[in-house]
Amino acid sequence: MSGGPILAVELNTVDIAMAVAIVVLIIISIATAVAETALVRISKAKASALADEGRPGGKALAYLVEQPERWLNALLLVVLFCQIVQASLTGVLFGNLFGPWGVAAAIVANVSVMYVLAETAPKTWAIQHTERAALGAARPVKWLADFAPLRGLAKFFIVITNVILPGKGLKEGPYVSEEELLAVAAEAHESAAIDQDERNLIESIIEFGDTVVREVMVPRPDMVTVSHDFRVADVMEVVILNGYSRIPVLGEGIDDVIGLVFAKDLMRAERDGREDEPVRNLVRPAKAVPETKPVAELLREMQADKFHMAVVIDEHGGTAGVVTLEDLIEELVGEIVDEFDAADDGVEHIPTGGVRIKGSLSVDDANDQLPVDLPEGDYDTVSGLVLAELGRMAATGDTVEVPGARLTVERVQGRRIMRLRIEQIEIVDPEAADTNEKGDRASRRDRDEKASRAQEASTAQAAAAADQAESADISEGAS
């Protein structure tokens, strides 16, 4: 008995061509997987170093890493094209060779082979040999990125995507967000790669870029100033009492800061016998900055122009406060207290529970230093939070509640909140509270029903007893 043919259809030229195309597409998929993983993982600093060393492909690699938006979309389009076409050809080829069951076999074989050969294996190898893989892939990927038809097709699909999902989008990333950097720092601390101080410094540096002058300045009510007609000797007393090296000098009022007077100029004037002169003769120009200026920009400006204090101006042109170089540095390294400063972080733990804080303590600092999570809003300080919740000026004894905390005003000076007490409170889940309330109502309803039934039973027993008594009386009368 002659054996029948194993294949449903004999191989022909088209089938052979499809088989060759499938192999080529799998090889291209492997290469693109290696390229994508290596180029995404390598850093700009490493790519620049390889280019400076004159390594083959180093310049192309530095170009690609510097401008990922130029090649990433084109490369992803090639990856998608290869995988879809390869899967389609595999299904057609297996269907021709093995019939309807061939399509099912093609799906299983394609998923298994592509997962191992075109995904897991090449990407793992690229992670293990990132530098070698990135250098090898740089020139071919750069050629793809510079190939005008492919780049134009990728842009066309991006335009279609923007029609479906309208929005501004991201031009160049970010490929690493602030949250990811903070998570990396947290993981490094947990694995003992960095200590707590290093982690805090990393977090402070990241947050530094999002901080504006208003958040770090000495506010207007806390400013120490002198009038322009004060004598040098009087201003020297103010400097000695407060321990400052620079003090703002006012003209017509607090919104008219005409400049700064330096302690060294006052000492020189007193030594020369000019203690009775008005201080306006010693005034130096003061730098003015808006309260919304990023502190990172102000720090660079202070370094470049060599000044240590600036007057902060609000949007209406009035004086909002002053900011010093020390205020900016403290945002990075924490409070700087010298031998003449009174150490006061604004937080006092109460033995009976809770903490007492200054009203001027910022919400961010309160959340960092205390086991609370105060909400943020159009205010910077805890006193601003209280005023926002009250909707009026605060008075001693006022209390507001926010999720997880109760804030009580303990001291008010004029219209300013000076001291507050914060107590933790249990956060009640509204659904759980509603469920408990329903359960309480059900329990009360059951108790009322039981009491009602007991009362009805008692009434019935009393009525029965009365009937028996009445029957006994009738029987006696009859006898």
Structure in words:
Strand 11 and strand 12 form a beta hairpin. The protein is an alpha+beta fold and 479 residues long. It is elongated, with a radius of gyration of 39 Å. The N and C termini lie far apart (123 Å). The longest helix is centred in the C-terminal third of the chain and has 49 residues. The chain is built from 16 helices and twelve strands. Helix 2 runs antiparallel to helix 3 and helix 4 packs antiparallel against helix 5. 56% of the residues lie in helices and 12% in strands. The protein has five domains: 152 residues, no CATH class; 31 residues; 121 residues, Roll (CBS-domain), CATH 3.10.580; 78 residues, Uridine Diphospho-n-acetylenolpyruvylglucosamine Reductase, domain 3 (2-Layer Sandwich); 34 residues. The strands form three sheets. Strands 8-9-12-11-10 form a five-stranded antiparallel β-sheet, covered by helices on one side.
Key phrases:
disordered C terminus, four-stranded mixed beta sheet, 16 helices, 12% strand, 5 domains, 479 residues, CBS-domain
Are there runs of 5+ residues with pLDDT below 50, and where? 1-8, 466-479
What oligomerization state is this entry in? single chain
Cα gyration radius (Å):
39 Å
| Order of helical and strand elements | HHHHHHHHHEEHEEHEHEEHEEHHEEEH
Largest sheet data: 5 strands, antiparallel
Count, helices: 16
Give the amount of beta strand, in percent: 5-15%
Q: Give the % helix.
A: 55-70%
Whole-number mean pLDDT: 80
* Class from secondary-structure proportions: alpha+beta
In whole angstroms, the N-to-C terminal distance is 123 Å
> What is the count of β-strands?
12
Q: Give the count of structural domains.
A: 5
Shape: elongated
Strands of the widest sheet, in order across it, are 8-9-12-11-10
